[in-house]
TrEMBL record:
It is an enzyme of class 2 (transferase). SUPFAM superfamilies: Protein kinase-like (PK-like). This is protein-ribulosamine 3-kinase. It catalyses: N(6)-D-ribulosyl-L-lysyl-[protein] + ATP = N(6)-(3-O-phospho-D-ribulosyl)-L-lysyl-[protein] + ADP + H(+). PANTHER family: FRUCTOSAMINE 3 KINASE-RELATED PROTEIN, PROTEIN-RIBULOSAMINE 3-KINASE. It comes from Tolypocladium paradoxum. It holds the Pfam family Fructosamin_kin. GO terms for molecular function: protein-ribulosamine 3-kinase activity.
Length: 354
């Protein structure tokens, strides 16, 4: 979405073709005898303004970059987090993400503008087959936290919602804190809904500890593993040149790996289908108790639906999330004062909003 960031044509910016706003802070990233030839709008984004930048290096090499801009405090948190997430993934699994170059702040203000720049990759955005996608996901999830804790060095984001990911030893405590923030933001940005509030209270107080306190992996507590943070189909592509799977728009942190694939049970284009989950579980078995895997997936999917609903008030996502909250409350807490669960609103059934 255009953010109305003004384009300036002064000094080294004068010769840059195109209408996408570039700043001296970006030009300064390249060698003195390199030239930024053009900057054009490219792609769509709900919270940022995105462009494609062409640079000519002193030896005549042409290289293309993807430039993302965002405004204010939210923009700073969003792009610092994305850079750190992409940089971490690129360091640990080279080739999995576009190579990040830098993040920073534009020199002029207002508006207070932040940027993130990375290599540009031409991508086929059709969904890869499970046999090709899942091994890359498992490779990422095989990376464990450097300090044995859940969290991340900086705040990352899921759309408009920040991940509250300060380091924490206990997964139940970490996920409760994460969900409490998602619920509070959702209530702030949507209309008041007493039944939603009631279900949210029971979810935080009863459902989360019931499902997560006794989780086990290889007879021990679940390990904090590196996740993408928003691994929906729209953030997965195939490099047109190399054929490699590429992940982008990451909001990573170290978490229970099942959280990452819970977005696949969501509605619409986010619903990759059961065969992707089954392929994943065949390589990376669910935590114990395995019988509660689907209920954990339903719980974890709330993070994505509530955050999406916060950024898009009135969207179907809130209704889907509430219906899942009702299911979990009725099964693990109490359904008193709540409406009946509606199976046809459950995306995992293949019937809802597809």
């Amino acid at each position: 979405m255009p953010l109305d960031i003004p384009q300036r044509k002064t000094g080294p910016l004068t010769a840059i073709e195109g209408e996408f706003p570039v700043d001296e802070a970006v030009v300064a990233l390249f060698p003195p005898n390199a030239f930024v030839l053009s900057a054009d709008a490219h792609g769509d984004s709900a919270w940022t303004q995105t462009g494609k930048v062409m640079v000519e290096y002193p030896d005549g090499t042409l290289k293309t970059y993807f430039l993302k801009l965002a405004l204010g405090e939210h923009g700073q948190t969003l792009l610092r987090g994305e850079f750190t997430a992409i940089d971490t993934l690129n360091t640990l699994i080279p080739g999995l993400v576009p190579v990040p170059l830098a993040w920073g702040k534009y020199s002029f203000s207002p508006p207070e503008t932040y940027f993130f720049i990375q290599d540009f990759r031409d991508m086929d955005m059709s969904l890869p087959k499970p046999s090709k996608l899942i091994p890359r996901v498992v490779q990422m999830h095989s990376l464990t936290s450097p300090n044995g804790k859940f969290g991340f060095p900086v705040t990352t984001s899921d759309g408009i919602a920040p991940h509250i990911n300060d380091w924490e030893d206990n997964w139940t405590h970490f996920f409760t804190r994460l969900m409490r923030k998602s619920i509070e933001l959702n209530k702030e940005l949507n209309t008041d809904w007493p039944e939603f509030n009631l279900a949210a209270e029971r979810l935080l107080a009863v459902v989360i500890p019931r499902l997560l306190d006794h989780l086990r992996e290889d007879r021990g507590p679940v390990m904090p593993r590196l996740i993408h943070g928003d691994l929906r189909g729209g953030n997965i592509g195939t490099d047109e040149e190399t054929g490699e799977i590429i992940f982008f728009d990451a909001g990573s942190f170290y978490a229970h790996n099942e959280l990452d694939i819970a977005t696949w049970r969501r509605y619409g284009l986010q619903n990759l289908g059961r065969r992707y989950v089954d392929e994943y579980n065949s390589i990376f078995p669910p935590a114990e108790p395995e019988a509660e895997f689907d209920d954990r997936s339903r719980l974890y999917s709330l993070k994505f639906d509530l955050n999406h609903s916060s950024g898009h008030p009135g969207d179907t996502a809130r209704d889907v999330a509430f219906n899942n909250m009702v299911y979990l409350c009725c099964k693990y807490a109490s359904g008193e004062g709540l409406p009946d669960y509606e199976p046809t609103k459950d995306p995992s059934s293949g019937l809802a909003y597809i």
